[in-house]
Amino acid sequence: MHAHYRSPIGIVQVEETEGKICAISVLDEETEIVEPQTEVLESAILQLHEYFAGKRSLFDFPHHQTGTPFQQQVWQQLGKVEFGKTQSYLQMANAFGNPLAIRAIALANGKNKLWIVVPCHRIIGKNGELTGYAGGLWRKKWLLQHEAKMVGKAQTELIF
User: Fold this and answer.
1) What is the pLDDT of residues 45-62, one digit of tens each?
2) Domains contained in the chain, CATH given
């Protein structure tokens, strides 16, 4: 089951399985808006709306995504990156105790299916550059600027 939400950066598709949100993604093409048909989908859509309205920084609807034990560890680490802040892939690798794990961490990051809720957009290159993002770098930049404004770090360009 799924629903759509029209966000400032595109149509967001939210998917539910067994009473939990299992995937959130942004679509590049226009599509017919599907209204939420369950309380879980309705809650997720409402919370995403609040996030984009600048009124929410944490999500508390039930969610789960399947992945390898390593992917689960990476996604858990992503959840520890504070709202409005960024972390480099190197910093993540160091937190895992393995500075050579950057590529593996980046691959796991790219498999994240819970867009925004598991904040993979907060991970950047070691020199502060924006690197790979499934939703497109322009969306990553928008999300980082949006969060910076919400925490009172309004800026016109990203500064790390």
Assistant:
1) 999 999 999 999 999 999
2) 2-52 (no CATH), 69-150 (1.10.10.10)
CA dihedral sign, ordered 84, 65, 60, 136: positive
Return the amino acid letter for 110. Answer: G
Which helix (H) or strand (E) segment holds residue 20: the answer is: strand 20-27
Residues 116, 65: Cα–Cα separation, whole Å: 13
Supply 55's token pair. Answer: 């009124």
Q: What amino acid positions are annotated as catalytic residues?
A: 120
Determine contact, residues 103/90, Cβ cutoff 8 Å: no
pTM for the model: 0.89
Helix (H, G, I), strand (E, B) or coil at 50: helix
- C-alpha distances (whole Å) from 54 to each of 16, 31, 47, 103, 153 are 24, 25, 11, 33, 13
